[in-house]
Every structure is written in structure tokens, then in C-alpha cells.
């Protein structure tokens, strides 16, 4: 596109000046206007030491034989050399394998079947629980306390929690057993694949009580969203300390926090109700009171609401862990 511009300007100032003003190489300009003829491509002669077709086929047969099929080229080359056989160089072996789409890893590779995507639904409190463990910083570097928390995914109510100096399967079992003694036995309990979550004591407890076990896929934090969200609410709270001075300090803080979380925190995922209100079934009364207050505000100043009667947020009808797509729901209906 620049050649016509150079030609137009060259009429007034000359080609050399036009190329200089437009930042165009003069040699490049002339070459573009009069391209040199294409040079004929002469085939590269085959080297005199090239293997014949039969020799290359023999090399390929040896490398893919049962003895060398799972060995690297270097291993095969050295083994053959030790046996008194020289077929070709290692680079030639690599070229022959590459030409036959056999380059790369030659050993058998471990294959793992894909983990099932957990799909759980709760339409009311007491149906599905989720639990996890998070670390709390202790007084010194390298000192941590383990916070165990069990949530009801429908109400977001923390049905149990405990803090220990270590992660232990027996502590987890005792916590779950105590929670089920107070709040009843859920239909399913979801957790990630930590050592405590998959331990024999916890698994045996759930089997004995007839509770379905569900686990997250490896390295998929979204499979346990309720526990992860609760931990974020905890650790991003303005009052959350940088470190805890002792195990007793951590337990005292957690006691205050979970009392607030269960009974005062208005959760956006449950229609801005408190987890306790949803868990113990007082949502209807609370929502009726909210509607009464909104009705009074609307009656006093309807213009402030665009003449549209306001309603308090509704409580979702279900809580999902990995809700299936609408197409999948239709197929299973």
C-alpha cells in the first residue's frame, strides 16, 4: 500500500526524497516494484550415508519390538551396542520414530478414570451437611490450629465446630457424632478428600448411621462452596486477628463468631435471613414482619417505589452442590 504513496510523492520531490519522507527503504521500494524472478527450488541431494528403506524399516521394527517398545531411544541404542549391534545413531532413531508418528513418551502411562462430579440438593434443613477444616495462625511462625466446621447447606447454620491443635480423624468423628445427636442425622454429608474426611472412623460412622458420603473432586474447590464461603466470611471479618495467642484464644473467638454467624448474620444466599431463622423454621414469621414494614412504607410514600409494591427477598427453594444443567434435569425427569 505504501508503494503508490511513494510514487505519488516522487512526482514532486523525487523517489529518494519520497522514500526518506515516508520512511521507506529505497531498495525495498524498487524491489517491490520489480520483484526478482523466483529461484528454482532444487531438491536436496540425499546423503551418501542415508539408510535404505529396508534398513529404516528394520530399525523401526527393532524399536517397536517387545524388548524395546517401552524403552527410550537412548536405552535401546545402548542395549543394542552392548549386545554388539549398531543400527544407526540415536538422532536417526528419533527421526525414524518421528516420521512414523511414534516420537515422544514410549512407556505406558498411568491413566485415572475421571472423578464423578458430586451433585447434591437440599430442599430443607437437616438434609445435606458440608464440612471442612481450615488453618488458623497460632502465636508463633509455623504454629497452626485446625478449625473444623460443619454446615447445613440449606440453612447455612453451623451445626458443629471445634478447634484442635492438630487434624485428627477421631476428633472429626466425635464432632459429627455430637452434631447428629443434637440436630438429627442428615441424608448426606459432603466434604473434600482430606485425610480426616476420608478416614476410616468417619467413614464407618456414616455407614453405621446410613448417611450417604460425598466427596469433592481432587483440586476442585468449587465442589465444596458452602464451607469455602463460610471460611471466607470468617477470615475476612474486620475482627479476625492476624494470629491467635493460644488455643483458648482461638476457641473463644470462634465461639463468639459462630454465635453471631448463626443468629445475627443476614446471609445473602438465604434471602437475607439468619441461618438460625432458616434452620429452626421462623422464616415465615420474619418474612411476614418484613412485608408488614414494607407495606407501611409503601402506603406512606408509594412514589418512592415507582408505584410498585415492594417485597422482601425470597428464600431459595433448594440449595445445590453442582446443580445439573436444565437439559440434564429434563432428561432425568
From TrEMBL:
Region ranges (Disordered): 27-46
MF GO annotations: nucleic acid binding
Q: Which domain of life is it from?
A: Bacteria
Spell out the InterPro entries in the cross-references: Integrase_cat-core (IPR001584), RNaseH-like_sf (IPR012337), RNaseH_sf (IPR036397), Transpos_IS3 (IPR048020), Transposase_IS3/IS150/IS904 (IPR050900)
- Coiled-coil positions are none
Which positions fall inside the Integrase catalytic domain? 121-283
Pro residues: bias regions = 34-46
The name under which this protein is listed is Transposase
Amino acid at each position: 500500500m505504501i508503494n503508490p504513496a511513494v510514487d505519488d510523492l516522487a512526482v514532486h520531490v523525487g523517489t529518494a526524497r519520497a522514500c526518506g519522507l515516508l520512511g521507506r527503504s529505497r531498495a525495498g521500494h524498487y524491489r517491490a516494484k520489480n520483484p526478482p524472478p523466483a529461484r528454482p527450488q532444487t531438491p536436496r541431494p540425499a546423503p551418501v550415508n542415508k539408510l535404505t528403506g529396508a534398513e529404516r524399516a528394520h530399525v523401526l521394527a527393532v524399536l517397536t519390538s517387545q524388548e524395546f517398545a517401552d524403552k527410550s531411544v537412548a536405552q535401546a541404542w545402548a542395549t543394542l551396542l552392548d549386545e554388539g549391534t549398531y543400527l544407526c545413531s540415536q538422532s536417526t532413531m528419533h527421526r525414524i520414530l518421528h516420521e512414523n508418528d511414534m516420537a515422544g513418551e514410549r512407556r505406558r502411562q498411568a491413566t485415572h478414570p475421571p472423578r464423578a462430579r458430586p451433585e447434591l440438593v437440599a430442599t430443607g434443613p437437616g438434609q445435606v451437611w458440608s464440612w471442612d477444616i481450615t488453618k488458623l495462625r497460632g502465636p508463633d511462625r509455623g504454629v497452626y490450629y485446625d478449625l473444623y466446621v460443619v454446615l447445613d447447606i440449606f440453612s447455612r447454620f453451623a451445626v458443629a465446630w471445634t478447634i484442635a491443635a492438630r487434624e485428627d480423624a477421631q476428633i472429626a468423628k466425635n464432632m459429627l457424632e455430637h452434631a447428629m445427636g443434637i440436630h438429627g442425622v442428615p441424608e448426606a454429608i459432603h466434604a473434600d478428600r482430606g485425610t480426616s474426611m476420608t478416614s476410616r472412623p468417619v467413614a464407618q460412622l456414616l455407614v453405621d448411621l446410613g448417611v450417604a458420603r460425598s466427596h469433592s473432586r481432587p483440586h476442585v474447590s468449587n465442589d465444596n462452596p458452602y464451607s469455602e464461603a463460610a471460611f471466607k466470611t470468617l477470615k475476612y471479618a474486620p475482627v479476625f486477628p492476624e494470629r491467635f495467642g493460644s488455643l483458648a484464644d482461638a476457641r473463644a473467638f470462634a465461639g463468639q463468631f459462630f454465635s453471631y454467624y448463626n443468629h445475627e448474620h443476614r446471609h445473602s444466599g438465604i434471602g437475607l435471613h439468619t441461618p438460625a431463622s432458616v434452620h429452626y423454621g421462623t422464616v415465615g414469621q420474619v418474612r411476614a414482619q418484613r412485608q408488614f414494614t414494607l407495606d407501611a412504607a409503601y402506603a406512606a410514600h408509594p412514589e418512592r417505589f415507582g408505584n410498585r409494591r415492594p417485597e422482601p427477598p425470597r428464600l431459595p427453594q433448594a440449595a445445590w452442590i453442582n446443580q445439573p444443567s436444565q437439559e440434564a434435569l429434563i432428561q432425568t425427569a
